[in-house]
């Protein structure tokens, strides 16, 4: 373990989205400096950073220019080419390291890794070519969700193929990209575990989150998820096993399906801060963003203890269809915390911000969050 980096040190971030922005806000509060690499000088992270290097995430010269200015490098997306991370790693520590990214950023390698670890996941089969599709679909019982191996997220780069579909026509939607097919899971609910791991192997687990998706995009998170203690232990153990096996450093999320009989299947791993961990800002003693800063800087992790129950609702660009949303509906709720990411081009499905409702009574928090979201949807313009 290299020497700890204390406040005053500079953190480089590859990618300037909302995750980088919220990490930068936490880092700067603590006295760290932030420099971000992103194609846009006005990206969400650049707006709150000390410096920005404008360039693509696969531009090795731009990435080296960033590395020359910082003490450690981290990322707000796992879709940075691992070869770039290898090159940067010779200049400054990169956390998480290139090998974590190599395992995670290709769905097939990720699934093989989970199989080797003995972690349960949905049955799957490779779809490297159209010819392999028939074999995969037969193996999985005739229907499946086919996902591109690289760079898919929030349901992008995936297609559901049902028994009666023209499966090759459906596959063509993925434009010949190498893919994997997964059996369709009839889950009771989706949950996630967000944790932080430091390079000495210390782990802090945030409360388990329960997630509701709409059109494959996270809509709402409730935490802590209600579940029997032995299942909660098992779910946490699965995430901890994965984090240690990867030798991950930083925050990591493991998305899981919970089946009606209580069985747990891992859906996917995100080697970074995660949308389902946004509630930790306000609801936990240390947010996932501060925790990530602490882990990548090699200083002690904070406590992930819950201070409150919470419900988080995502605000997608759809809410901007008729102009700025009616913020009065959010600001009138005393327990609601509004987070906006500074994105100036709202588009349907684009994550623009979120609201966290803090309340130990999760039923009341859910009712408040749903009423607030319904009001934003029904009356989407600002009123004084
Ligand atoms: P992903 O991007 O792979 O996390 O998929 C986004 C969402 O699609 C998940 O959170 C689920 O709601 C749904 N989904 C993905 N894979 C499956 C599956 N094998 N079975 C059922 N639903 C799935």
Can you give the helix content as a percent range?
A: 25-40%
| Uncertain stretches of 5 or more adjacent residues | none
Give me the Rg, rounded.
21 Å
Q: pLDDT average, as an integer?
A: 94
How many strands in all? 17
The total count of helices amounts to 12
Description:
With 384 residues, the protein is α+β, with helices and mostly antiparallel strands. Helices cover 30% and strands 25% of the residues. The protein has 12 helices and 17 strands. The strands form 3 sheets. Strands 9, 10, 11, 12, 13, 14, 15, 16 and 17 form a 9-stranded antiparallel sheet that branches. It has a 4-stranded parallel sheet with strand order 3-2-1-4, with helices on both faces. A 4-stranded antiparallel sheet has the order 5-8-6-7, sandwiched between helices. Strand 1 (10-14), helix 1 (18-29) and strand 2 (33-38) form a beta-alpha-beta unit. Helix 1 crosses helix 10 (288-297) and helix 3 (82-89) runs antiparallel to helix 4. The chain is globular, with a radius of gyration of 21 Å. The chain starts with 9 loop residues before the first strand and ends in a 6-residue tail after the last helix.
